C-alpha cells in the first residue's frame, strides 16, 4: 500500500505494467468522539474507500450493509466494546471533519498515537451529517493499528480530493522490492508491505530459507524416486519370473530379443497409462478430503480462514514425467534379463530355483517362532532366492522411505517451531501500574476460562562487564560500553503454576521452590 499519493500520480500507478489490481482509500480527517470511554481513542477517523477496497481489504460486515455513496457510513463494533458507545443501523450522526495537527503545524494520522508530551489540536474543515447503514468488525491492523487514536468509520469514495492511499496487487509478487522501489520513486512515496501474504506466496522468504526448502524437497523427491524404482523394478522382476515360460515359447518360434524387450516395455507403458492418471486423481482427491477435514476440525480456530486446494498444472506434469522416468528405469533390467536367457532355460524356468544336493536345513528358532508355516517359507526363500529377495528389498526400501521422509517432516516442524513457537494460551490481558487483583479474579471466574495464570514481572539492570574474564576485557575493550547496562526480566508465575512448570520440566518441586530459573 502506497501512502498519501498525490492525486495526479494515482493513474500512473494504476497503469503500471506490474500492477494487476488497485484499491483506493482516502483519509478525510478526524472528528472528536466526545462520548468515548477510552481516553487513548478520543476521535473518529473518517476513511473514504473504493468498491474494490470494500470487497478486498477484509472489511467484515456484522450488521446492515456497506455504504453506497459519500453520505453513508459504516461504524466499527469496537466503538461499543472498546469505547463504550453503541451505534445502531439507521441513525444519523453529524461530524465536524477536521485536520489533526500539532501546535507546530505538523499533520498527524493514525500512525501517530496520542502522546502526553505532544500538544495537538483539531483544525475544522467542514461539518457533514452521515447515515449509519452498517456495523462492521474492527478493521485489520493495516487500516487501524491498536495504538491508533481514532475509531475508523468508512464511507464511499466518490472523488479524490488531494491525496489517497492506493493498495496494489502485483501480477507476479516475485522481485516485489524492485517493483515497489520503482513505483515509490526510490522511497519518495511512503509504503507498507503485506509481508504475511508475501511470505505465503513465497516472495518474502530469505534466499537461505528458500534454498533450505528446495533442498529438503529435492532430497524427499530423490528418496521417493529411488525407492519407487526399486519397488517397481522388483515388482517387474517377480512378474517376469512368473512369465518366463511364455517368453521362452515366444523365443522358440522366432521372437527376437528386441521384440521381447519391447513386450516388457509395453507392459510398463500399460502400467503407466493406468497407474499415473489414477495416482494423480487419487492424490488430488485425498488432499481435498484432508483439507476439508482440517477445515472442519479447526473451524473454531481459523475464524474466517480456510485451507483451499489449488491444482497446479506444472506440478501435475512434473509428477507424470517423474513417474514415466521411474517406470522406464524399472523396466530396463527386467527387459534385458528376459531377452538374454535362451529359449530352453526360459521354458524350463529353472534359473530362479536353486536346489542343492544337500538337504536344506531350517534353523530351530524359525520353527519355534513361526511353526510349520515359517519353516516352509524359509525353505521356499532358499530355493527361489531371486523372487523373494525382490519382495524383501521392496519391503526394506518402503520402510526406509517412510522413516526418512518422517525424519525430514519432523525436522521441518522443529525448524518451524524456532519461528512459530507454540504458546499455551488463547488470550493475554496486560495491566500496568497498580495491581488490580479483584479485576483479575473476576476474569478468572468467567465460565469459559479453563486455565489461567497471573504473572507479574519487573526489570533489573545488570552490569555485565563485571562478569567478563580478563581475556574478554582485553580483546573486546574497544566494544565494551562501560555505561551500558543489560536489562533482565524477572517474572513471577504464582505457586500453583510454578508447581506445574517444575513438573513439566521434570524437576522436583521441593528442590526447586527456593531456586530461580533464568531464560
Task: Walk me through this protein's architecture.
The structure is a single chain. By secondary structure, this protein is α+β, with helices and mostly antiparallel strands. It folds into 3 domains: 2-200, no CATH class; 208-419, no CATH class; 437-512, no CATH class. The chain contains 17 helices and 11 strands. The protein has helices at residues 7-14, 51-56, 78-81, 176-183, 195-200, 207-242, 244-252, 257-297, 299-302, 313-340, 343-348, 364-383, 385-419, 437-444, 470-475, 495-504, 509-512, and strands spanning 2-6, 19-32, 43-49, 61-64, 72-76, 92-102, 120-136, 150-156, 163-170, 456-462, 486-492. The strands form 2 sheets. Strands 1, 2, 3, 4, 5, 6, 7, 8 and 9 form a 9-stranded mixed beta sheet that branches. The protein has a two-stranded antiparallel sheet with strand order 10-11. Helix 6 (207-242) runs parallel beside helix 10 (313-340). The two termini are 39 Å apart.
Topology:
Elements: E1 2-6, H1 7-14, E2 19-32, E3 43-49, H2 51-56, E4 61-64, E5 72-76, H3 78-81, E6 92-102, E7 120-136, E8 150-156, E9 163-170, H4 176-183, H5 195-200, H6 207-242, H7 244-252, H8 257-297, H9 299-302, H10 313-340, H11 343-348, H12 364-383, H13 385-419, H14 437-444, E10 456-462, H15 470-475, E11 486-492, H16 495-504, H17 509-512
Helix pairs in contact: 6-10, 6-13, 8-10, 12-13
Amino acid at each position: 500500500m502506497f501512502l498519501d499519493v498525490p492525486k495526479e500520480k494515482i493513474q500512473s500507478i494504476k497503469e503500471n505494467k506490474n500492477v494487476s489490481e488497485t484499491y483506493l482509500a482516502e483519509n478525510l480527517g478526524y472528528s472528536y468522539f466526545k462520548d468515548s470511554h477510552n481516553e487513548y481513542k478520543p476521535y473518529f477517523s473518517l476513511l473514504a474507500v473504493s468498491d474494490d477496497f470494500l470487497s478486498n481489504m477484509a472489511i467484515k460486515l456484522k450488521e446492515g450493509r456497506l455504504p453506497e455513496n459519500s453520505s453513508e457510513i459504516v461504524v466499527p463494533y469496537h466503538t461499543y466494546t472498546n469505547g463504550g458507545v453503541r451505534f445502531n443501523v439507521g441513525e444519523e450522526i453529524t461530524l465536524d471533519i477536521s485536520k489533526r495537527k500539532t501546535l507546530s503545524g505538523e499533520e498527524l494520522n493514525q500512525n501517530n498515537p496520542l502522546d502526553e508530551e505532544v500538544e495537538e489540536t483539531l483544525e475544522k474543515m467542514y461539518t457533514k451529517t452521515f447515515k449509519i447503514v452498517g456495523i462492521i468488525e474492527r478493521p485489520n491492523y493495516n487500516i487501524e493499528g491498536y495504538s491508533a487514536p481514532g475509531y475508523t468509520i468508512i464511507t464511499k469514495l466518490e472523488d479524490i480530493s488531494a491525496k489517497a492511499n492506493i493498495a496494489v496487487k502485483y501480477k507476479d509478487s516475485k522481485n516485489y522490492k524492485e517493483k515497489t522501489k520503482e513505483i515509490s520513486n526510490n522511497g519518495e512515496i511512503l509504503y507498507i508491505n503485506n509481508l504475511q501474504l508475501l511470505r505465503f506466496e513465497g516472495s518474502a522468504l530469505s534466499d537461505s530459507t528458500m534454498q533450505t526448502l528446495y533442498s529438503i524437497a529435492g532430497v524427499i523427491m530423490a528418496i521417493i524416486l529411488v525407492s519407487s524404482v526399486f519397488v517397481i523394478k522388483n515388482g517387474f522382476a517377480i512378474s517376469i519370473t512368473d512369465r518366463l515360460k511364455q517368453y521362452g515359447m515366444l523365443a522358440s518360434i522366432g521372437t527376437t530379443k528386441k521384440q521381447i524387450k519391447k513386450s516388457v516395455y509395453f507392459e510398463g507403458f500399460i502400467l503407466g497409462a493406468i497407474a499415473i492418471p489414477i495416482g494423480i486423481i487419487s492424490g488430488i482427491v485425498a488432499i481435498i478430503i484432508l483439507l476439508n477435514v482440517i477445515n472442519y476440525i479447526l473451524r473454531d480456530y481459523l475464524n474466517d480462514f480456510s485451507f483451499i486446494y489449488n491444482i497446479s498444472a506444472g506440478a501435475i506434469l512434473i509428477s507424470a514425467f517423474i513417474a514415466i522416468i521411474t517406470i522406464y528405469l524399472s523396466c530396463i533390467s527386467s527387459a534385458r534379463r528376459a531377452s538374454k536367457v535362451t529359449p530352453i532355460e526360459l521354458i524350463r524356468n529353472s534359473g530362479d530355483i536353486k536346489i542343492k544336493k544337500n538337504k536344506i536345513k531350517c534353523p530351530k528358532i524359525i520353527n519355534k517362532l513361526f511353526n510349520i508355516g515359517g519353516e516352509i517359507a524359509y525353505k521356499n526363500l532358499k530355493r527361489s532366492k531371486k523372487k523373494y529377495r525382490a519382495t524383501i528389498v521392496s519391503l526394506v526400501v518402503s520402510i526406509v522411505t517412510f522413516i526418512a521422509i518422517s525424519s525430514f517432516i519432523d525436522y521441518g516442524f522443529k525448524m518451524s517451531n524456532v519461528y512459530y513457537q507454540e504458546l499455551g494460551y488463547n488470550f493475554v490481558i496486560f495491566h500496568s501500574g497498580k495491581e488490580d487483583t479483584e479485576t483479575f479474579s473476576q476474569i478468572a471466574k468467567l465460565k469459559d476460562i479453563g486455565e489461567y495464570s497471573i504473572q507479574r514481572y519487573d526489570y533489573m539492570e545488570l552490569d555485565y562487564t563485571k562478569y567478563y574474564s580478563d581475556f574478554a576485557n582485553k580483546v573486546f575493550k574497544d566494544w565494551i560500553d562501560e555505561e551500558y547496562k543489560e536489562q533482565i526480566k524477572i517474572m513471577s508465575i504464582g505457586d500453583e503454576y510454578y508447581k506445574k512448570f517444575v513438573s513439566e520440566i521434570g524437576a522436583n518441586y521441593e528442590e526447586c521452590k527456593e531456586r530461580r530459573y533464568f531464560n
